[in-house]
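Practice problem 4.
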């Protein structure tokens, strides 16, 4: 079976898109962990609502500073950062809950009862 150039380009675009989204998922995890640490410093307990509000209070520049566009081509770094900021601003409560439970699995957060979390060892 012969693969056409068009099929090859589509496959490459799909693989690149999946790679970017996987990388961005890691950046979002880092951002949520950062917001969780800020909430823990201020309140002790970490709730999903407090993390959401902390993220919503961040400026575009603060969010952008947590993006890691290292995998992007030099001319695409600004696009990656802009897309990252937009994606973070659109995070829902449910998406944050999902990411926080991933952080529990990774050992970065503890508990996860209802919508309460803590830092391990705290």
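Answer key:
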């Amino acid at each position: 079976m012969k693969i056409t150039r068009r099929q090859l380009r589509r496959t490459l675009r799909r693989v690149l898109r999946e790679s970017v989204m996987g990388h961005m998922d890691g950046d979002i995890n880092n951002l949520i962990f950062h917001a969780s640490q800020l909430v823990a410093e201020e309140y002790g307990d970490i709730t999903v609502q407090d993390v959401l509000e902390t993220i919503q209070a961040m400026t575009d520049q603060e969010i952008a500073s947590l993006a890691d566009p290292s995998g992007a081509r030099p001319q695409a770094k600004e696009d990656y950062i802009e897309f990252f900021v937009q994606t973070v601003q659109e995070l829902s409560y449910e998406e944050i809950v999902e990411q926080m439970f991933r952080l529990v699995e990774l050992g970065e957060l503890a508990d996860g009862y209802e919508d309460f979390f803590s830092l391990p060892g705290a």
